[in-house]
Amino acid sequence: MVLDVVLDTSSLTLNIADPFQPDIDTLTSQIRQFVHTKGADISGLDIKELILRMIRGIAGCERGCPADAKGIVSRGFKGFELQYIEGGILSAHALLNNGGHFYLKMFPDF
């Protein structure tokens, strides 16, 4: 899987090698560092839980059940506007306090 992190006009691309055992602490640390270097604040957003839900929504469950990307969107997530894009892509958008735009876009690896 690929996770694109976009802050206004800057972006960071992260690979998620194993969606069933993601290194979520490293991912969130890299995202927070990236955002911090751009002068933005995402401390009020639960990106850790959101990323885990997005991974599960795209990868499905270990028993082989269908992915639930559209269900993630219909249930929503606090602080984010979620969108399902054809091909199994999930996008999450948050409007930051300073008026900036923060996106997480997750792409399946198939």
What is the structure about, briefly put?
The chain is of the alpha+beta class. Helix content is 31%, strand content 28%. It has a five-stranded antiparallel beta sheet with strand order 2-1-5-4-3.
What is the helical fraction, as a range of percent?
A: 25-40%
> Structural class given helices, strands, pairing?
alpha+beta
Beta-strand percent range: 25-35%
Strand order of the largest sheet: 2-1-5-4-3
Unreliable sequence segments? 61-65
Count of DSSP-assigned helices: 3
Main beta-sheet strand count, sense and barrel state: 5 strands, antiparallel
The oligomerization state is: single chain
Radius of gyration: 13 Å
Bulk shape? globular
Mean pLDDT score, rounded?
90
Topology, number of strands: 5
Sequence of secondary-structure elements: EEHHHEEE
First-to-last CA distance: 8 Å
Q: What attributes does this structure have?
A:
28% strand; globular; 5 strands; 31% helix; 3 helices; alpha+beta; 110 residues; 5-stranded antiparallel sheet
Structure report:
The chain is of the alpha+beta class. A hairpin with a 3-residue loop joins strand 3 and strand 4. The chain starts with a strand and ends with a strand. The longest helix is centred in the N-terminal third of the chain and has 14 residues, at 24-37. It contains three helices and five strands. A five-stranded antiparallel β-sheet has the order 2-1-5-4-3.
